[in-house]
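pasting input
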Amino acid sequence: MATETEETREDGRLTRGRKTRASILDMAADLASVDGLEGLSIGRLAVATGMSKSGLFAHFGSKEELQVATYFHARERFLAEVILPPREFEPGRERVDALVAGWLRYMRTEVFKGGCFFSEVRTEFGSREDGPVRQVVVKGTLRWLELLARELDALPGDRDVEQMAFEIDALGTAANYRFQLLQDPAVFDQAAAAIAVRLDAATVY
Amino acid sequence: MATETEETREDGRLTRGRKTRASILDMAADLASVDGLEGLSIGRLAVATGMSKSGLFAHFGSKEELQVATYFHARERFLAEVILPPREFEPGRERVDALVAGWLRYMRTEVFKGGCFFSEVRTEFGSREDGPVRQVVVKGTLRWLELLARELDALPGDRDVEQMAFEIDALGTAANYRFQLLQDPAVFDQAAAAIAVRLDAATVY
């Protein structure tokens, strides 16, 4: 009985620890979507969360660990918001449409405070020297482009799916930067219209 | 005679001052194309140029002045490299083709060390609080999109030039981020092909 209680207590501590970590990373992903991952420091995060620096160090040993953990946490949110819901459909046009609509909605509704987290960090790390954080950003970008190409490959007919993935990624990403900078949500309609033309042309072939 | 010599001396000083300022700003624009304008400080620029901080303060009174001066300096380089050369052609398809080709070449050849300076700072300032530097970035972005729309408006036929400008800007900007991140220059061919399809469709109407 005593053992059970101890186990329950330990479970409680682990759950609380996980929850604290998740809420710190929520805040970190929001901050990074505005200022980038390089702008993220344990000092700034301490101010934003109201936690002590030493408390944060218990969760993340270094700035680099914090940056990588923030990226993976943001990816979980992206999976839940954008990638997984369209899987209720079979591969094909309906699923591609759901994916594109969900992706544009995710940017328009600012799931992350500064718009698309990934768009921010891809530009941020693009021209920087190689390192562990940049490698995570590169791998994540490739995964996204491959997923897009795979979904497009399920459309009927013969087409250059890498070219289409390039164009669709470009149009959505541009809508995000223009919305953030110029605040006009009409860019999402421009992106959706351009992507639909591309998909219609491909489906006809 | 004495006056003339003094004037000549003064001219010499002004010319030297301008040259020094221009070479500092060249360096600043390169640094900002990699790390953004917020990463630019008089301290970092002193290290990069080998000048003293006080020497730099004589040219730029504050970080904000340095950021704005760097933006305008980068714009001069962009004008000379991308905007002005196509003006040897009359408005129309040939001039649009020259503009697009020059723009993609400017990104591929890395006129700025970290690729397109403007793409970097547009993403950087997109979600930040308003301020003088952000306003300069917003105005510069609008000028670029308006210029693109104006050139497209000179093509024969009837079309939505804002939609086309959105798409062309999106495709080139995506090629830039993907080249910086993934180092594959094939993205410029993907962008050029997609833009040509768009222009051909418009010219046919």
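fyi The domain at 2-204 of chain A is CATH 1.10.357.10 (Tetracycline Repressor; domain 2).
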